[in-house]
Amino acid sequence: MEGTPGRSLRSAFLEDGAVSRDVVVPEYPELGLIAFASPHDPEPSIRVEDGRIVEIDGTPEAEFDLIDAFLAAHAIDPTVAEEAMGIDDLSWARMIVSTDVPRTDVLRLVEGATPGKLARVLSLLSPLELMQAMAKMRARRTPSIQGHVTNRIDHPLLIAADAASAVALGFRELETTVPVLRDAPLVALALLIGSQVPAPGALTQCAIEERLELELGMRGLTTYAETVSVYGTERVFLDGDDTPWSKAFLAASYASRGLKMRFTSGSGAEVLMGAAEGKSMLYLEARCLAVTRAAGSQGTQNGGIDGINVTGSVPNGMREILAENVLAALYGLETCTGNDTQMSASDIRRTAHTLPLLLAGSDFLFSGFGSIPTYDNAFGPSNFNAEDIDDYMMIQRDWGFEGALRSRDDATLLPLRRRAAEACRAVLEELELLTFDDAEVERVVHAHGSLDVAQEQTDDTATAGDAVIERGITALDVVRALAARGFDVEAERVLEMTRQRLFGDHLQTSAIFDEEMRVLSALTDPNDYTGPGTGYRVSPERQTEIARVRQERTHADLLAEQAPHAGCVTLQETGPAAAKVRPDEVVIGVSPAFAKEVWLTLSGVTVGEALRQLLAGIEEEGVHARVVRVTHSLDLGMVGWTAATLSGSGVALGIQGKGTSLIHRADLPVLANLELLSVAPLIGPEHFRALGRNAARHAKGGKPAPVILPESSAAMGPRYHAKVVALITRESACLEPGPARAVEVSWPS
Amino acid sequence: MAELSYPLGEHHRSEVRAQTGRTADELTVEAVRAGRVSAQDAAIDPQTLLRQADFAERGGNPQLAENLRRGAELATFADDDVLRFYDALRPGRSSAAELEEIATALAAGGANRCAALVREARTHYLRRGLIS
Question: Is there a single domain that holds both residue B104 and residue B131?
Answer without folding.
Answer: yes
